[in-house]
Amino acid sequence: MDRKNMLVQRARDFFGERLDDVLHMVNLDRQEMRGWQEPAHLRATVRRSIRQQNAGNSSTYRTDSTTLTEDPTLTLCEMARPAGEPDPGQQREAMGRVLEVGANALQRIINNNLDLTNDETFGLETILLLYGRPSLLVQEDRLAAVPPFWNVLEDQREDIEMIQRGVGRVELLGHPDFDWAGTGFLVTENLLVTTRRTAELFAERTNNTWQFRPGISAWMDYRWAYQNVSTAGYRVRSVFGVHDTYDLALLEVESPQLNGNSPTPLPLLGNPEQTLNNRYDNRDVYLVGYPVRDARRNEPETISRIFRDVYNVKRVQPGQLRGEFRFSNIPFLRHDAAPLGITAGAPIIDLETHLVIGMQLSGRYLETSTAVPLYALRDDPLFRRANIPFTEGTRRQETERVVEQMERLARTRFWNEARTLIEQLHQRAFGR
Predict the structure, then answer these.
(1) CATH fold group of domain 165-253
(2) 0.70 surpassed by pTM
(3) How far apart are CA 253 and CA 154, in angstroms?
């Protein structure tokens, strides 16, 4: 399948029967960008940082025959260039032109006319990443503005913001080549899940035990932006264990402090048949992680210039499950929630229940990704030895079960002690 046909297929997969709605959204956003400020959900994804061009130089490049891929607004100005103060007007006009040709591409798809120009192909690709599978910033523990196509995220904002606290990055101190190792997430107060490859960057196996490499220490940083290792806050104490089959490891870390913004362990799905009702296709999920660009096989340079700050910061990426498959009789999950960058070790979370379904392994740009189905490990010896809890029922059933347990506890002589513990947990989750 060539690139144009692949993008058209992705548009149909991502938008389904809502192509007309998406076209309307794009046209509205284009109209708003003729004003003083672009829509908030675009600012949440696209970095407003381009190099200032003087009038003389920019006029040299503009001709009536200029195309988007030749436009200096997109190429010479380097829209996502880290240095230099952005020109908001130039940024808006460039993105506005991208939305225009993207809208033309959507209209062609609706009319079953798939003879897209190069500019329309580029515009369609951008729309897929802005509306279909956005990569939303997390700043100060808050989820950025949500595109209209994913309004369901706005309805679930409070739960998403709570869940993302428990996702962080393993930072390294003393490593000769790397400042960080990969993404991980808490599953108990002092255990986190990540990939085997992450653990192997700072630890090695010796006599059936895992030891830290000489001179290297590791820390967990749960904050949204890239931070210095010295301020990470939570030390990785040891490698609790590495799975024999999956690319998965458990790390023992310092327990989170009790305050209103501290990391919270993520609940794991234990019974997919009951909770998901056997729906492994087209079920809404989201991924929380720190995308890293893989220049060997990921997104093209033109796209990365627009989305460059998608990397190395915490992002929420929504998508859908694309089924379960087996390789050598080992189960894996497919999903399309990670179209940009590498996010190995990030949790895949069900949007309805906010239970962790899997851990991200690998993926390719705008292709389906592969994840470890963590529910398949609920009886695994490593997870049993770690005493990792799984949620067996739906969210409502779990709530009812907890309420029943608290009612029974309130009638015992241990209630005063339990009430103090509950107050501490509430302070940790929400502050005073």
Answers:
(1) Thrombin, subunit H (2.40.10)
(2) yes
(3) 32
